[in-house]
Amino acid sequence: MNSIFISFSHTELKPLVESLISALNGSTLLQRCQIRPFHIAEFDAFRKAPIENTVHCVSRSRCLINLIGKDLGEVRAEGKSHIECEVNAALDNQVDVLTFLVGKHHADSATQPESVREFLSVLPSHFLRHHIQDEHQDDIVDSIVKQVETFLWASLGCDDNPRMPESSLLKIDGISPSTDTTESPHHDQFRRIFDKPDPSLETNPIASSLAQRKDWAFQSMELNHLSEATQNLVKATEEFGSDFFSCFWLGRIYALQTDTSANWKSAIPLSERAISSLKEDETLLASACNSHIAIAYAHIGDFEKAAHYFDLALAQYETFEVLERKTDMLLNQFALNNNPHNKQLAVEALSTFIRTNLKYYLAASEHFSKKNPTSFAEAEGDIHQELDALRVALTENYGELQPWADSAFNIAFPESTSFHDSNDILLAIYAANQKMWENFAALRACSTSLLQFYESHAQQRKDLETHNLNLDNDHGVAISLIDELATTIDERKTTNAKESDLQTRVSKEKRNLVIWDISLLASLGILAWCYFLKPEFIWLSAALSVGLLIVRFYFKSRHSVATLRIKSSKAHRRFINESVTELVENAMHSMALPHMRSIVERLKSAPNYLNHEDLAATKSALNDFVENQRKAVDSGLATWELKSLSLKKLIREWLGKVAQFEQLASSSINTNVTGRINQSRNVHFFHPSLLTNNSEGMFGEPSDKHCFQKDGSQMLAWFDNPVSAIAMQAFYSNEKPVAEATSEKTLA
Fold first, then answer.
1. Nearest-CA neighbor of 692 among 678, 673, 672, 712?
2. Which of these, 718, 747, 59, lies nearest to 449 by C-alpha position?
3. Which residues pair with 685 in a beta bridge?
4. Do residues 168 and 220 touch, judged by C-beta distance below 8 A?
5. Contact at 8 Å (CB) between 587 and 579?
6. Largest interatomic CA distance in the chain
7. Closest Cα to residue 596, out of 695, 451, 479, 457?
8. Distance separating alpha carbons of residues 605 and 532, to the nearest angstrom
9. Could you please report the per-residue DSSP string of 462-490?
10. Which of 422, 446, 622, 730 is the most buried (most CB within 10 A)?
């Protein structure tokens, strides 16, 4: 877990990797943090199964370094290269990834291989990506080592390039007269103390004489001729009054570069006069002047006033120079008077240094240990003991989390990192950072699983409610269908009866028509007989035939009307049968439950023969199905409520684990041990004393307990999906049983 795994895309990079490992092994930072770099080719036994073993090694590493040459290398497993498999393993196990693109062809995306572009696009934004165009191997190695060290320093909460002041009179906050401060927000303030006065620009003789004195003084300070500088500054203050430039530099010389009590006492009013001429927003210069007063009081021996002015200077503008001098004073005070109060002050001063920037503290600690070895060792020893106690407590907490997570979520955590005993404060801080990260990552993995549990649980409730609504809807549609079909069956019955009557009428009219046809034929025969044999009766027979023809037409029309009516009745009957099918299909389209549709579907199998008995049987089957399903839904809801209690208990246990972890994090008031959490997750740690009531809480907990926050919210610190997390919070907070609420208050 405390190793750096180095992966490379092509064998031609192996010499570079070997040189890189040698350089990393020589890194003081890696040595002090007990970090060991290696690559898989070091072990002959792993070469037979490289993919499996490299993935295993990556999952147990502190970070993964990828060296990418012309492309990602040969594709080996599941269409992926070694590097892609290793990065996936790193992502799955929350291992940091540092990717170095070696070669000029990576400078332009147009010349970069498509596989590399796709690979880079999936890397999380907080993973380091660095392009190295150097051609010489030593330059490439130096660049990578520098980036790795910078990355590790950042994981300890350190700036990349902290302001490292030198013991120089002309350096203020690491800035000297030769420094370009054009881009600095304090450019105008630096001009007031670093711009050389030019007598030729002054029209007033008195102002010109003052500028000349200040110019000579500044030139003398640059040449380190402090006696000459002091003489000119003294004359400037005596002859021309409270000029800021003269008061500032003379007070600084008296406070920092002299060893007489009179000069130290003179530094105080000079610095106060300089402060009186400053604007309210010139905080950097005000801080520097107050630091001169503090240093003077420290030399005089008034440590209480010195501490007051040091604190005032740090509140106005925090500089490492002031921190160093305050710490130096408190260590001196502790060395002169070894009592618990002075020791606590020294410990707090060292702790402030460590929290502000560990990198600078380590540089300044060499001076402290040489000047006051005993008092410094004792004060730093207290911090070391606290870190060791925190590391042990976090290790135990991690060990307690593992069986709980295994039982609750079936999650297996990586093995905790082990460290050899050492008196090195850097190792103690790094080890505590690692342990803090391991606990945070473990709880974060549990929170992800917990949210997945809740989402699945909420979906079950939603499915049950949806099923219940579907039952109501489908049952209502089915009952309406049966009512419509019953009406349709009655209508079809009426139509059938009417059709039967019409059929009888058609038969009757047909018989009548046949009789009149016969009568008409007979009359025509009589007409022919009269025409040939009895001409005197022809008009009578003709009138008879016409009368019979008219009667025949009358009965023919009646037969035709009856025939049309029966055809219309048959068409209506066919329409009724077709409407049965259409009604069933429309109802099926409106139903969501397949089984309900299958019950209704039977009604359209023989629409011509559908009757009330079929509808009654279908209705009975529907009622039985709905009744059984309602029982199943009720049973499911009852089971869901029981699972809800279990889930709320699990949430409460998780909250307890988070509260316990945050309490451990809060116990470390002297050091910053959450740097890696901030680096990897952009999650910040706030001591409870710094939190306000406006801090956004979660799950109804008091807001002043929420130490880990992201963008002012604890919810964002612990969950990737805040929307679902808020829903889970509402679920947990809604109708919480009294017993649970009592347990929660007890836990808090």
1. 712
2. 718
3. 708
4. no
5. no
6. 179
7. 479
8. 69
9. HHHHHHHHHHHHHHHHHHHHHHHHHHHHH
10. 446
**511 CB-near residues (< 8 Å, 6+ apart):** none
In terms of Cβ atoms closer than 10 Å to its own Cβ (0-12, 13-18, 19+), residue 423 is: exposed
Terminal CA-CA length for the chain: 33
Amino acid 161: pLDDT: 57
CA separation for the pair 535, 690 (Å, rounded): 139
Structure tokens at 367: 């001076």
Query: Which SS3 state, helix, strand or coil, does residue 674 take?
Result: coil
How far is residue 332's CA from residue 372's CA, in Å, rounded to a whole number?
Answer: 7
Task: Please tell me the predicted confidence (pLDDT) of residue 102.
Answer: 82
Task: Round to whole Å and give the CA distance between 255 and 276.
Answer: 18
Classify 225 as helix, strand or coil.
coil
* Spatial distance between the Cα atoms of 416 and 435, rounded to a whole number of angstroms: 8
Tokens of 185: 């927000």
CA-to-CA distance for 145 and 162, rounded, in angstroms? 18
This prediction has a pTM of 0.79
C-alpha to C-alpha distance for 63 and 413, rounded to whole angstroms: 17
DSSP character at residue 166: -
Alpha helices (H) in 533-611, listed in sequence order: 538-589, 594-601
Q: What's the pLDDT band for 701 if we cut at 50, 70, 90?
A: low
Mean pLDDT of 208-218: 84
> Do strands 708-709 and 96-102 pair parallel, antiparallel, or not at all (unpaired)?
unpaired
Helix (H) or strand (E) holding 329: helix 320-336
Contact assessment for residue 41 and residue 35, using Cβ atoms and an 8 Å cutoff: no
Instruction: Give the single-character DSSP code of 712.
Output: T
Residue 184 has pLDDT above 90, yes or no: no
Non-local CB neighbours of 195 within 8 Å, separated by 6+ positions: none
Task: Give me the residue label for tokens 């690979």.
Answer: 119
- Give dist(CA 198, CA 213) in Å, integer: 10
Asked if residue 244 lies in contact with residue 192, where contact means CB atoms within 8 angstroms, the answer is: yes
**DSSP per residue over 684-746, as a string?**
EE--GGG--TTSB-STT--GGG--EEBTTBHHHHH-S-HHHHHHHHHHHHTT--HHHHHHHHH
Tokens of 88: 């996936």
**What 3-state DSSP class applies to 708?**
strand
Q: Positive or negative, the Cα torsion across 502, 503, 505, 506?
A: positive
Beta carbons within 8 Å of 12's beta carbon, 6+ residues apart:
69
Interatomic CA distance for residues 268 and 274, integer angstroms: 10
Asked if residue 81 lies in contact with residue 9, where contact means CB atoms within 8 angstroms, the answer is: yes
Cα distance between residue 230 and residue 240, in whole Å: 15
Question: Which positions ≥6 away from 567 have C-beta within 8 Å?
Answer: none
Distance CA 387, CA 384 (A): 5
Q: What angle do CA 4, 672, 95 make, to 5 degrees?
A: 25
The span from the CA of 39 to the CA of 307, in Å, is 52
Q: What is the DSSP string of 336-395?
A: HS--HHHHHHHHHHHHHHHHH-HHHHHHHHHHHHHHSHHHHHHHHHHHHHHHHHHHHHHH
Percent of the chain with pLDDT over 90: 32
Report the residue count for the chain.
748
pLDDT in tens, 286-326: 999 999 999 999 999 898 899 999 999 999 998 888 888 89
Element (H, E) at 64: strand 63-68
- DSSP character string of 86-147: HHHHHHHTT-EEEEEEESGGGSSTTTS-HHHHHHHHTS-TTSEEEEE---SHHHHHHHHHHH
Could you tell me if 104 and 131 are in contact, meaning their C-beta atoms sit under 8 angstroms apart? no
| Conformation bin of residue 683: beta by default, left when phi > 0, alpha when psi is -120 to 50 | beta
| Amino acid occupying residue 539 | W
Q: Which amino acid is at 323?
A: L
DSSP 420-466: -----HHHHHHHHHHHHHHHHHHHHHHHHHHHHHHHHHHHHHHHHHH
Report how far residue 593's alpha carbon sits from residue 470's, in angstroms, rounded to the nearest whole number.
7
Euclidean distance between CA atoms 308 and 270, whole angstroms: 18
